[in-house]
């Protein structure tokens, strides 16, 4: 049965488009987007310059979160429409729990310079004697990409996470706990948090060692089903503006000063962090990541099973929560 309200909204948007408005015009009078501080991305330049506001035709409310799990909670409570650079792990946890959200794009690919585990130098523990972590207190933001990196890193160094006292801490608190000597190791993400942790610690695995072990990160763009259904033009506009920003970055034309300030980081730290990031173009995403059998789809299956519980089992087919229709 046709919904007369939705028909009216569609006709209103169509008329506006014909008068010269963008395709983004729709029912929403505001777009609410989640993002991370200490996580520098090209589209933050457009955030500051209000390119998104102009493209949408309505104001944008950006809210920073400490973890991807908090992004999910905000989406479920109706406070956030789009989560940008949400970790794949919290997304998987959400859809395993039947959360009404969908993956629409790959935001950033990164090595373990952006997400890592830092062990206290004072502990004398390294990858060579990592089993000594067993029985120690470890800070990990549970259900995040740092949680995934923690589990994978412990496999590489031969330590058993189930024998550790794992404390759920966001990266900022985890780095502070490591500095204060309250934990022996902290697994975290974010430029400032990692830098602070490294004042007293060292990475359990180097970036190269993590890469050689196949440990890598993928952050994604997720959207609530409700917003996607009611405002498909706005979802497409967000993806398009973001990819334009990524193309500008690949061409060496991003304004690092603007991005650094918005990310609450210094210029040198921002450049270093972004040098370890990759913002793939839509063609690469569609042909190598979000296609059947692609890298992202394989990661979804691996993580989906890794974090599955009896209450929230892994999905049989994660393609049901992924769509490429908004990619340019």
Description:
This protein has two domains: 4-110 and 217-321, 3-Layer(aba) Sandwich (D-Maltodextrin-Binding Protein, domain 2); 115-212, Periplasmic binding protein-like II (D-Maltodextrin-Binding Protein, domain 2). The protein is built from 15 helices and eleven strands. It has helices spanning 4-18, 43-48, 51-56, 68-76, 88-96, 145-157, 171-180, 191-197, 207-212, 225-230, 232-250, 256-262, 267-275, 282-289, 295-306, and strands at 31-35, 60-64, 82-87, 101-110, 115-120, 137-140, 165-168, 185-189, 201-203, 217-224, 277-278. The strands form two sheets. It has a six-stranded mixed β-sheet, with helices on both faces. Strands 7-6-8-5-9 form a five-stranded mixed β-sheet, with helices on both faces. Helix 5 (88-96) crosses helix 15 and helix 12 packs across helix 13.
């Amino acid at each position: 049965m046709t919904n007369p309200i939705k028909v009216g909204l569609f006709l209103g948007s169509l008329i506006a488009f014909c008068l010269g408005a963008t395709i983004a015009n729709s029912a929403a009078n505001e777009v609410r987007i989640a993002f991370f501080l200490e996580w520098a991305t090209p589209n933050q330049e457009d955030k500051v310059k209000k390119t998104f506001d102009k493209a949408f035709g309505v104001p944008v409310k950006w809210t920073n979160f400490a973890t991807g799990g908090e992004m999910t909670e905000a989406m479920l409570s109706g406070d956030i429409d789009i989560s940008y650079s949400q970790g794949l792990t919290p997304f998987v946890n959400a859809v395993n729990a039947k959360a009404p959200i969908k993956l629409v794009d790959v935001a950033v690919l990164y090595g373990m310079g952006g997400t890592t585990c830092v062990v206290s130098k004072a502990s004398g523990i390294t990858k060579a004697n990592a089993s000594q972590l067993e029985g120690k207190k470890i800070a990990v933001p549970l259900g995040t990409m740092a949680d995934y990196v923690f589990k994978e890193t412990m496999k590489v160094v031969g330590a058993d996470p189930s024998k550790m006292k794992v404390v759920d801490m966001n990266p900022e608190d985890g780095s502070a706990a490591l500095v204060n000597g309250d934990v022996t190791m902290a697994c975290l993400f974010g430029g400032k948090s990692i830098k602070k942790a490294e004042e007293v610690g060292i990475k359990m695995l180097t970036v190269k060692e993590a890469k050689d072990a196949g440990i890598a990160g993928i952050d994604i763009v997720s959207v609530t089903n409700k917003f996607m259904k009611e405002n498909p033009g706005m979802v497409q506009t967000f993806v398009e503006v973001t990819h334009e920003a990524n193309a500008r970055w690949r061409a060496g034309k991003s304004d690092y000063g603007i991005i650094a300030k918005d990310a609450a980081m210094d210029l040198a730290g921002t450049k270093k962090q972004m040098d370890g990031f990759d913002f793939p173009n839509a063609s690469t995403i569609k042909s190598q990541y979000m296609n059947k059998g692609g890298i992202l789809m394989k990661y979804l299956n691996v993580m989906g099973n890794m974090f599955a519980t009896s209450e929230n089992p892994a999905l049989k087919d994660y393609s049901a929560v992924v769509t490429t229709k908004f990619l340019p």
